[in-house]
Amino acid sequence: MQIPPSVTERAFARLAEIGAADQGQALRVAVEGGGCSGFQYDIRLDTPAQGDLVLEAQGQRVVVDEVSLPFLAGAVIDFADELIGARFVIDNPNATSSCGCGTSFSM
C-alpha cells in the first residue's frame, strides 16, 4: 500500500484565497511524460473526476488521478511565495532528480 500524497495548510489556504471551491474547482496535480527530465507535473484548477483521490481541508480540495498516484506516493503538495514567483510546488521523495524549473523530474 502506497502512502498517499499530503497537502500543506499553506496550499489549502492559497486555494481558499483564490476561491477555488467557490467556483466548483479543485487543484489537480497530475504527472505526465515529458519535460526536460522525463516526467513533468501538470498543476491546474479542474473539476474532480470519478476515480480521483480527493484530499480535502479548509473547504478546499486537491485531486490526483489514479495514473499519477504511484508517482506521487508520499509527496507533499505545498504553496511557495518566493522571489521567483508564487506557485504550487511538489516535494516528491520518488524523484531522483529534477530540473531547475521544478516542474520536471525523473525517477
Describe this structure in words.
The structure is a single chain. The protein has a single domain (6-97), classed as HesB-like domain (Hypothetical Protein Aq_1857, Chain: A). It is 8% helix and 44% strand. The protein contains one helix and nine strands. The strands form two sheets. Strands 4-5-2-3-9-8 form a six-stranded mixed beta sheet, with helices on one face. It has a three-stranded mixed beta sheet with strand order 1-6-7. Strand 6 (76-82) and strand 7 form a beta hairpin. The radius of gyration is 13 Å and the shape is globular.
Task: Give the CATH topology.
Answer: Hypothetical Protein Aq_1857, Chain: A
Which regions have little confidence, pLDDT < 50, spanning 5+ residues? none
| Number of beta-strand segments | 9
Main sheet attributes: strand count, strand direction, barrel closure? 6 strands, mixed
- The strands making up the biggest β-sheet line up spatially as 4-5-2-3-9-8
CATH class: Mainly Beta
> From the helix content, strand content and strand pairing, which structural class follows?
mainly beta
Radius of gyration: 13 Å
**What would the principal axes of the Cα set say about the shape?**
globular
Oligomer: single chain
Separation of termini?
Answer: 19 Å
